[in-house]
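Cross-check.
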Amino acid sequence: MFTIGSHLSINKGFENIGLESLSIDANTFQFFPRSPRGGQAKPLNPQDIKALEELMNNTDINVILAHAPYVINLASKSEKTRNNAFELFEDDLKRLDQLPNNMYNFHPGSHVQQGAKKGIELISESLNRLIREDMKTTILLETMAGKGTEIGRTFEELQEIIEKVDMDEKLGVCLDTCHVYDAGYDIKNSLDDVVDEFDQVIGLDRLKAIHLNDSKFGLSSHKDRHEQIGKGELGLDAITDIINHPKLKDLPFYLETPNDVEGYKEEISLLRSLYVE
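Predicted model, tokenized:
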């Protein structure tokens, strides 16, 4: 089954975002559990959670993806910034444990001139404190474009983090097609090679989700600028290859393209027409 959805707002509640997803022919969705700039999260409504569970039990929506606030930086040079990131992360994980089958995706962070090695150590230390044995949510490290001092621009950097985490069974990876292409992985012309490299370095068993985005600037640009499907440097042929790749096609795909809900509906319709069951 082709599992695809988009990033939608949960301001109207989880049940409503689920219904909105179904209305655009999506069978999953991504959301921010709080403002992408951080801050206080709204209390969860138990009735809304129960309604979401019933919706997921009675439709094809069987997994959902939360996205951490962009302000989270577990690799920061500033202890205050790291502590704030830790508190937000910890609170999100506690809240997400109340939701059905979900994952929590985050940008690993920026080392801010400390060097990637130091940043990786800081991220891993925080994850070791954050991950609980009874935790239901799977944490996903996102592949990054390599802008500035971002960590996660290579598969090796993500694997270094994973190797330093004790309960690594709670960790996975979300591959962003725009980010990896911008980072220098040529998924347009050498998709098989990139998939094989990911498998060799990290392992495909760690790959839990894909952010499906075209790229505005393209290969090795390190720009991290998403484009609508088929309108960027990746192009529709490459994206068609990605969603139909035998080692990728059964993963959940999430659109983060510059679009409104109607635009997501059109992209989902296009992608469903190109997906081979």
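The mean pLDDT is 96. The beta strands are 4-7, 28-31, 64-67, 102-106, 138-142, 171-176, 207-212, 214-215, 226-227, 253-255. Passed to J.P. for a second look.
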